[in-house]
């Protein structure tokens, strides 16, 4: 049986074109088709930027023509660049070098903030990151608390991050969490006096030059208050949402409100509030007492129209676990205290937030 060009074209028309979804003949990929006896030759013209992705298509094309009975098949791939659409006189959009950028490999960024210091923002960030990792998410934690970086201690990480090529920084990893902290760059206990531009440079470096790898979510532990770091983060990176941690007292809530206002101005969606230290659970007898009051954050969240993500009890184990380098979610995953964090993590995953 002698092969015809029509037979070959019909066989090739059964192969989908990766770029357009049409078949490769209809998409105009097949050029210069010649059939001489049982030898078939053709050229596959593919978009230059996608040439690698077409290797499989080329191999399939060869196989299909061979299956028709061709003794030799030569399918040569050539790359061309797709022509830019004609400029119809519209003004070009100005380049926006300063617009917030996507961090390479990172699907979502979630900032954890608090209006006031000491309310447990870092404890919540560390436990949330570990809880998300335990649920199988690829999690990163960036400790951007330039004034008091505590994540190296909380996640039990020390040492200086390596930079084999002098350009990118390799992050650290523990408890399933990929992490980077400003504390690792300056050394523990070293007081840091940051000037504005230095601080912005350091944050940008940690965001963009760290090899985060593929992450479903990067949690950013911000410094307390409504300062430069939060502003810089929102300017440099696309932040998908913010979580505000507060204790139930009025003063903390007042500051939390300022934090929410700031994110609203930055157009960062508020994922919700977390009430920390809401109920004190006695380590001896399990008696529950509301030392700082209870339900204040729930009421505030309702007033502001943002969700309450969860309530974390005040418990000695949460502090000792964090101080010991293995957050309670890792060291006592079945405890009621760990459960509170795990429920928040599960809720975030269910809503597609992490
Ligand atoms: N739910 C909790 N139960 C017991 N201890 C807690 C709880 N949450 C936080 N702590 C402890 O309170 C202290 C302050 O917490 P943390 O460092 O997380 O606060 P922060 O808001 O990040 O503070 P800052 O950013 O001002 O340094 C830590 O010693 C921590 O272990």
From TrEMBL:
Residue stretches of biased makeup (Low complexity): 95-104
Residues engaged in binding ATP: 115-122
Keywords: ATP-binding, Hydrolase, Iron, Iron-sulfur, Metal-binding, Nucleotide-binding
Gene Ontology MF: a single term: ATP hydrolysis activity
Region Disordered, annotated ranges: 79-104
Domain MIP18 family-like: 6-74
GO biological process, one term: iron-sulfur cluster assembly
Key word Hydrolase present: yes
Function summary: Binds and transfers iron-sulfur (Fe-S) clusters to target apoproteins. Can hydrolyze ATP.
Family: In the N-terminal section; belongs to the MIP18 family. In the C-terminal section; belongs to the Mrp/NBP35 ATP-binding proteins family.
Record note on quaternary structure: Homodimer.
Protein name: Iron-sulfur cluster carrier protein
Gene coding for it: apbC
């Amino acid at each position: 049986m002698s092969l015809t060009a029509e037979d070959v074209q019909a066989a090739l028309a059964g192969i989908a074109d990766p770029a357009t979804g049409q078949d490769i003949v209809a998409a105009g990929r097949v050029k210069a088709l010649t059939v001489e006896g049982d030898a078939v030759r053709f050229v596959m013209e593919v978009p230059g930027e996608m040439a690698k992705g077409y290797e499989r298509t080329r191999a399939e094309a060869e196989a299909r023509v061979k299956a028709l009975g061709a003794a030799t098949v030569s399918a040569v791939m050539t790359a061309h660049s797709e022509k830019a659409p004609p400029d119809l006189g519209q003004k070009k959009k100005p380049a926006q070098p300063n617009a917030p950028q996507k961090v390479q490999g990172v699907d979502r960024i979630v900032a954890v903030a608090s209006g006031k210091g000491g309310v447990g923002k870092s404890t919540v960030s560390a436990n949330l990151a570990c809880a998300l990792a335990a649920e199988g998410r690829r999690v990163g934690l960036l400790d951007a608390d330039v004034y008091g970086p505590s994540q190296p201690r909380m996640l039990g990480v020390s040492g200086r991050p390596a930079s084999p090529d002098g350009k990118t920084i390799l992050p650290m990893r523990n408890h399933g969490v990929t992490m980077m902290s400003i504390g690792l760059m300056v050394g523990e206990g070293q007081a840091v006096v940051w000037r504005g531009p230095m601080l912005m440079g350091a944050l940008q470096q940690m965001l963009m030059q760290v090899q985060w790898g593929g992450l479903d979510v990067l949690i950013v532990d911000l410094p307390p208050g409504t300062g430069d770091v939060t502003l810089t983060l929102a300017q440099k990176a696309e932040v998908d949402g913010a979580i505000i941690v507060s204790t139930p007292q009025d003063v903390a809530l007042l500051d939390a409100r300022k934090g929410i206002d700031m994110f609203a101005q930055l157009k960062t969606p508020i994922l919700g509030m977390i009430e920390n230290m809401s109920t004190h659970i006695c380590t001896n007898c399990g008696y529950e007492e509301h030392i700082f009051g209870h339900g204040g954050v729930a009421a505030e969240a309702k007033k502001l129209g943002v969700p309450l993500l969860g309530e974390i009890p005040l418990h000695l184990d949460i502090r000792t676990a964090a101080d010991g380098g293995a957050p309670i979610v890792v060291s006592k995953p079945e405890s009621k205290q760990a459960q509170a964090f795990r429920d928040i993590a599960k809720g975030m995953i269910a809503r597609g937030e992490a």
